[in-house]
Amino acid sequence: MRNSETMPDVNPIRPKRSGLQAVPATPPSTRDLLERAGRGDEQAFSALYDDVAPMVFGVIKRVIRDQALSEEVTQEVFVEVWKLAPRYDAAKGSPHAWVSTIAHRRAVDRVRSEQSRKNREQADVDTKVHTGPDVGDEVVADMVEQLDRVRVREALAALSEAQREAIELAYYGGRTYREVAVLLGIAEGTVKTRIRDGLIKVRDHMEVTR
Amino acid sequence: MNDDLHHLAGAYALDALDDNERLAFEAHYATCDICTEEVRSFQEAASSLADGASTEPPPNLKGQIMAQVAQTRQVGPVVIDLSEARNRRRPNMRLIATAVAAACIVVAGIFGAQLLSNGSDTDDLIAAPDAVITDLDGENGQLQIVWSAERDQVAIIGSDIESPAEGSTYELWFVNADGVAKAALFKPDGGNVNDVFDVDDAEPTGFGVTIEPDGGSDQPTSDILYLGEI
Q: A196 in contact with B at a CB cutoff of 8 Å?
C-alpha cells in the first residue's frame, strides 16, 4: 500500500486514509485516486474528476451531442463512479477503462431510451420506415475533427476504412451492431467481424505505444 | 474456438448489443475465462476511443458533482456476489446464451477433462456424447460438474474442498428459470470429490451447491457456496 497508510493522520477528524497531503512528491496515479475514492476519500475523488472528466464528458457529448443533456449525464456518471468506487477491481481493468465503460454505457442508454420515445411519437404521425436516426456528413466531419488526438488517430489509422466506419458508428454513434448493419447496408455478421477485428488492432496498437 | 462468441465480445465492449443480448452475454462471459479476457482487453481499447473524444467539461459542473457526492452513500465492496449472478439469469436469453455457453463448454471440455478427472466412472461420463462440463465458482475454489441428460447422471469433481460440519452435507442443485431441484448429496474425501450420481430427469441451465443437514433438503436452506451456468 501507499505511504499514506503508515503516516500519522494529519487531520484526526478525517477518515484514516483520506490525507491527500500525506502523499509525497510524485502525484498519485489514477488507480490510487480511484481506490482511495473507494474508501470514501472525497479529496481523492476530486483529483480523480480532474483526471478523467474530459474523457467522460467528451465521450458522453460525442454520443449524446446535446450539451445540456450531456452535462446531466456526466453528473450522473460521476455520482455512479463515486457510489461504485468501492467495487473497482484493478485486476479487471484500468481505471480509465472502468470509468469510460460506465460513461459510455450511460450515454448509450440515454440516447436509446430517447430514441425509442421519439420513434414511438413519430410512429403516430409518420408512416415512414425508421431504420435508425440520421447519420449525416456532419457527424462524420465531427468525428474526423474529434479524432485529432495523436494516439487514437494512429490507432484508428491502422484500421481499414470499413473497420473504422463500423467502430465509429457503434461507439461514437451509440448504435447497436444491428443498426450499424442497416446503416451500412451489410450483414450483421460482417459488422461483428469488423468491430472485433478493429478492436484487436486498436488494442494491439495501444499496447505497443503505451 | 467459436467465432460467434468473439464477435459478441467486441460488440459488447462497444455497448453495441441490444438489451437482451447484453444481458445474455453478461450472464455468461463472467464464467468463461476467454470471454472475460476478451472483454477486458476490448474495454481497454474502447477507453482509448473515449480518450480520443476528450472535451473539457464546463467548469461549473464539478461543483455540482462534488456537492452531490458529499450526500451520496457508496455501495459496499464485493464480498461474493453469487446471488446477483443467479438473479441475472433470464429465460429470454436462451438463444444467445446457448451459443455462448456452447463455446465456453467446448473450452471447458478440452481443458477440464484433462485437468481433473481420474476416476474411471467420471471418465466414462465425460466420454458420453452429450456430456456437458460446467465450472462452479465458489469462495474457496472450483467444482466441476459433468452432466449427461441422456444417462441422467452427474459427476462432481473438485479438490481442496472443505469438509462440511458434523451432521451436514453438500447438496448439488439443478438450477433453471423455474427454480431449483435436488440433484445429489456429496462429501469430500480428504478434500477431494470425484463421484458419479444417478439423478432425476432435469433441464438445468446451471448448478448450485449448498450445505444442508445430513440426508439433504428439498429446498436450499443455506447460502449458495458454488454456482455456475451451463
A: yes
